């Protein structure tokens, strides 16, 4: 067992889904391709302009905090965080320092320190010796969530980030696409010889996927262990993640809060949330939908789903929406079981062109033996590719299951004739022979035979 103890804390930023930016009326549109079209004097920091806080952004953060069991602030305020980069037009960022909107909470077993609001920066792109700045993103509402330093391995960190993305999407607070920069995960990593975290932690930035989060943390833990093993010290710094080289690299030495010269934002009023009835804990709680962990528990209790299946369905909002509709349309344990099994295995959680109504109708056909397992798979493949009515597809392609004994008799007689040795084994009491003959009967009928009828015929003809 390693003598080194890694400690990890996460800082996660998520762009919130609002119509306008955090402190102005410019449009918040993450899909805009034309640069610098969603701007105004406020988000470009023209002299004399005054910010106004976005009420919907505040509501989003309060709903996230409530879902996580955090404590909602009563008195809160915004602060100026000073630093000088080309993507910060004001020379400071409006954020929250001592009085965040949410304190505490927990997700996936990880304790949360705080959740607060701030404005996003502009987007910089670099082309050779030139750098260009797009201010469409400048001022977009940004939620920052900070965990306690209670994570000790890369997988737990990755799982937490995935759970947070799912929660944000479930609440409609953010689309949280990492590849589009709508969710950014930064990891603070330290390694020590004791269980007390080292103060010389490294913050890893520029991580654009959940797998990269895990790899970056794993690499950084190993890098710091190697430094300590060689007698060197870990330097408190900010490092980036190089996806191509699969390694972290030095960016700059770490700033402390004093370097940002925080002070209360003088152009925004203090907020006393108790004076806003719709922002009370009780009012916010009534707006929450069924949360992912609540839905998982309901699926397992109400529909007897296996934990692995319920987790798979709930882990994606598209899957959840589809299956919620399907489960409201199917009845009985057999239809429910078939609906879940085909969704997980054959559709792999991607409904594509299949509607919940068509899928439920197909499951009813399968449950009542109108379609064999193979026929159901064939119809489902066409539904996923083209859509349509499952009954019509089955009729047009001849996928219907044959359940008439007289129709099946000739095929089964041929199977018994071709497998006389297996028939003898069956008559001698070898039960496994029956399953083999049923399989041959299915093969002979090209998957269209009713396996129950085939079994019955085999027993009848081998008496």
Q: What is the β-strand count?
A: 17
Strand content: 15-25%
Instruction: Quickly give the structural class.
Output: alpha+beta
Query: Regions with pLDDT < 50 over 5+ consecutive residues?
Result: none
Range of helix content? 25-40%
Q: What overall form do the CA principal axes indicate?
A: elongated
Give Rg in angstroms. 30 Å
In round numbers, the mean pLDDT is: 92
Largest sheet: 10 strands, mixed
Write the layout of secondary structure elements.
Blueprint: E1 5-15, H1 55-67, E2 71-72, E3 75-76, E4 79-82, E5 92-95, E6 102-103, E7 106-107, E8 110-119, E9 123-127, E10 130-134, E11 141-147, H2 154-171, E12 183-192, E13 202-205, H3 210-229, E14 237-242, E15 247-253, E16 263-264, E17 271-272, H4 281-286, H5 292-302, H6 307-314, H7 317-327, H8 332-345, H9 356-367, H10 373-386, H11 390-397, H12 405-418, H13 420-427, H14 432-444, H15 451-461
Parallel strand pairs: 13-14
Antiparallel strand pairs: 1-11, 1-12, 2-6, 3-17, 4-5, 4-16, 6-8, 7-8, 8-11, 9-10, 12-13, 14-15
Helix pairs in contact: 2-3, 5-6, 7-9, 8-9, 9-10, 12-14, 12-15, 13-14, 14-15
Summed up:
It contains 15 helices and 17 strands. It has 463 residues and is α+β, with helices and mostly antiparallel strands. The strands form four sheets. Strands 1, 2, 6, 7, 8, 11, 12, 13, 14 and 15 form a ten-stranded mixed beta sheet that branches. Strands 5-4-16 form a three-stranded antiparallel beta sheet, with no helix packed on it.
